[in-house]
What we know:
It comes from Fusarium ambrosium. The protein is α/β, with parallel strands linked by helices. It has a domain at 334-347 and 356-372. It is built from 14 helices and 15 strands. It has a 13-stranded mixed beta sheet with strand order 1-2-3-4-5-6-7-8-9-12-13-14-15. Strands 10-11 form a two-stranded antiparallel ribbon. A hairpin with a 3-residue loop joins strand 12 and strand 13. The model has no long low-confidence stretch (mean pLDDT 91).
Amino acid sequence: MSSSETLDFVASVTVGRISRAVLSRVSTRSFNTVKLNSHLESLRQFDEVFSDEKVRDFVKTIRYDVVLPVVSDKRLRNKFQSSREAAENSRVFTEAVVALFTRLSCWEGQGGVKLVLTATSPSDDAILRAGNLRVKPQRNSFKYVSMETSALPPGGLPPVSCISFLDIQKFDSSTGDSSGRRLHPDALSVMATALPCLEHTIWDLYMPPRRMPAQRKQFKAALANALLQPEYACLTTLTILLWDPDPRNEEAILVPDDEEDRLSVGIRRICELPTLVSLFLWGKWCLSHRAFRRFGPSVRAVFVDMSMTTPDGGWLLDIYPGSTEEEYDVESEFDSDSDDQGDNLPDIDPENSDVEDRLPQRAEAIANQDLPDRQIREVPNPETFTPLVTSFAQSVANSTSSSCLGFAEMRLTTELASMRLCYRGGVGGEDSRLGALPDFAQRIIRAEKVDTRRWRFDAYGGITASAWKSPVVMWDAMEKVVGAANIETNVDRMERD
């Protein structure tokens, strides 16, 4: 983003008038980006400039920063974000989004605008904060900015047809310095419902830690709703970065998701949208075979990074009886932790600002199922792993987009085993719509070019050491699309009955 192409309504807030630079760019129509925040003066200047409908035609990107409430120095130093703070942040965020959507709802005839949304408090952004005040590490990591329903209009957000791209990659910083603030997916559902012309969207999401099972269930349910409830009549590309590491204690008892496995159902719905061109699921996705049935008629690229856990509280991999792996000694990591107070998490009083909140590393690691470090799973579970990889191969075979599908890949990476199931369609030419993907996604798609359709299935570690074999139904699905001669794999196939 070049500053010479930007109408900046943030820098001019303190002076209370539109800057000369902005007025000059408006008069010469030499801009394509608008930068504003939820401060009343910033919104007023925005209204003044864009009361002229002809000026709106030049806007390609809107960067909107929600200004969250200030936090006292004492709480910044001592406390994690409290529920009261989180509720106030959500109220302010909701009102700010309503303010922007209300203004944009009257932009008739415009289209193709990208909205980059962030939320920043002057208190917890090092660039905006005065002095050298130390901020409590992780202070914003366990609460979310949500939509406060009581602050929404009766019918929800007003529809905005000019926005075709919603970018929430760096929600926690408008200045380049991360504050750790996290957006709850319930906000995505509300916003996406109000964007009838949404074509591209990127979400950067953080799952609650495993020591918070109730919050994890709520988060997953909200993410499923964000995939299932909006219409998505025009959705072309969806990229979600979901930060949720696998537990390092692979003997832990996992908490299952809802019985309906709605997150997998939501992914299946997105996969089959008639307008979808690309789906990228980055991070660690806990899905079942229900997520994959077929791909829609326009799909060109699919990427899925799998978790080793399953929605029913199980694992994709089992313990290999012949394994000689030993427990990794991580005790030394905590020997020098002067703040460590044993294996149990202490009680935290969010209202007493004089007492510093403490989260001992060892106790937190135990609660998050990272201690003891027992990475011992490496053999595919026939009831979870096999149906999942088979369903992905069958989705390509069942796809109505076989003429344009150029790339489909599922990955699983653990300490003791890894797997890569990849289809290359050999489809010529580039699709300009894939240009909306982030750089890392485009690099993955372009990593390997082939002239003919082919499947590649590579497995390592315990998957091959255990002599696991590809199921006949999975092999048949791959062969149906590319022929036996174009299947490359280091795994043997099961014998037919």
